[in-house]
Amino acid sequence: xxxxxxxxxxxxxxxxxxxxxxxxxxxxxxxxxxxxxxxxxxxxxxxxxxxxxxxxxxxxxxxxxxxxxxxxxxxxxxxxxxxxxxxxxxxxxxxxxxxxxxxxxxxxxxxxxxxxxxxxxxxxxxxxxxxxxxxxxxxxxxxxxxxxxxxxxxxxxxxxxxxxxxxxxxxxxxxxxxxxxxxxxxxxxxxxxxxxxxxxxxxxxxxxxxxxxxxxxxxxxxxxxxxxxxxxxxxxxxxxxxxxxxxxxxxxxxxxxxxxxxxxxxxxxxxxxxxxxxxxxxxxxxxxxxxxxxxxxxxxxxxxxxxxxxxxxxxxxxxxxx
Length: 322
Known about the structure:
The chain is an alpha+beta fold. It folds into 2 domains: 63-221, RlpA-like domain (Barwin-like endoglucanases, Beta Barrel), CATH 2.40.40.10; 230-317, Immunoglobulin-like, CATH 2.60.40.760. Helix content is 15%, strand content 26%. The chain has helices at residues 5-26, 32-43, 79-82, 136-139, 200-206; strands at residues 63-68, 100-104, 131-134, 148-153, 166-174, 194-198, 213-221, 230-236, 239-245, 255-259, 267-268, 270-273, 276-279, 289-293, 299-302, 315-317. It has a 7-stranded mixed beta sheet with strand order 1-7-4-5-3-6-2. The protein has a 5-stranded antiparallel beta sheet with strand order 12-13-9-8-16, with no helix packed on it. Strand 14 and strand 15 form a beta hairpin. Mean pLDDT is 76; it is low at 19-50, 72-99 and 105-113. Residues 238-318 form the Expansin-like CBD domain. It is found in: Secreted, Cell wall; Membrane.
C-alpha cells in the first residue's frame, strides 16, 4: 500500500511553484501617467525639466495716500506760495502715518542730477521729468530704483485737476528723513511715512500748485521702455562698476550677474548704491554677458553685449524684459 504522504507533498510543491506566478498576473498594471511618473522618478537626475514660465509683471493694487509739496531737501515750505497753509487748520491732523505723500521740490529739477539711484543723466536716459524721490520706506536702500508708479489725485475736488488724470513716474532718487520736524508737519519723508517727491510739472498736472496737500492714490505698474537694458561700465582695471538702467517690466533690479567669454564664469555682483553694481572680478579683455533679475523673480540674460575691447565709460545695450 502506497504511503499517502507522497501525493500530499507533491500537491504542496505544485502550489508553491504556481503561487508566485498567479500573484504576478493578478498585480494591477501602472496607468499611463503612473508609468511616465515612475520613469521620470527613476531618471530625474538624467532629465533637465523645462523652466517654469513666469508671467509678466502686472500692476499692483491701488493704495490710498496723500500728497504735499515743499521746496528743498529739508522739507521747508516755499513761504511766498504756501503762506495760505498757515492760515488754515493743520491739513494732516486727521491722517494716519500709513498714508503716503507726494511733494514738489525745485531742487530736483536739474536734468543731470544723479540722485541716490546714480542715474547718469535722468533726462538723457529717457526718464524725463516724470521721476520721483521716495521716502526710506519705499526706497528700500536703493532696491526701488527704476520701479514705476502710477499716481493720481483723489477725493479732493477743490484741488484735483478735472477728471483726476493719472501719471506714471519712475523712482530715481531718495527723499531723506528729517527727524527734526514732525511727521505730519514738514517731516514728510520720516519713517514710517510713504512719500513721493516730484517735480513741479508733474505735481501741477495732478492738482493746483497752491493746494499744499492733496490726497492721492498710487500703485506699482509695469515699466514701458524703448530698446534693451543698458549697461554703463565704470571703474578701473582693479575695481568695476556697472550702472544698470532702462529696465522694463518690474523696473527694479534685485540681482546682477556677469560672465565673460573666456575665463570669467557667472559671477554675482554686489549693489554699490542705487542702480550701480560692483565687482572685483577681472572683466577686461572678455566679451561680457549680463543676467539681470527683477523683484518679480524674472531674469533677462544679455549675451555678449560688449566686445572684448570694451572701454570704461561706454554704455552697451542688451536684452530687456519682454
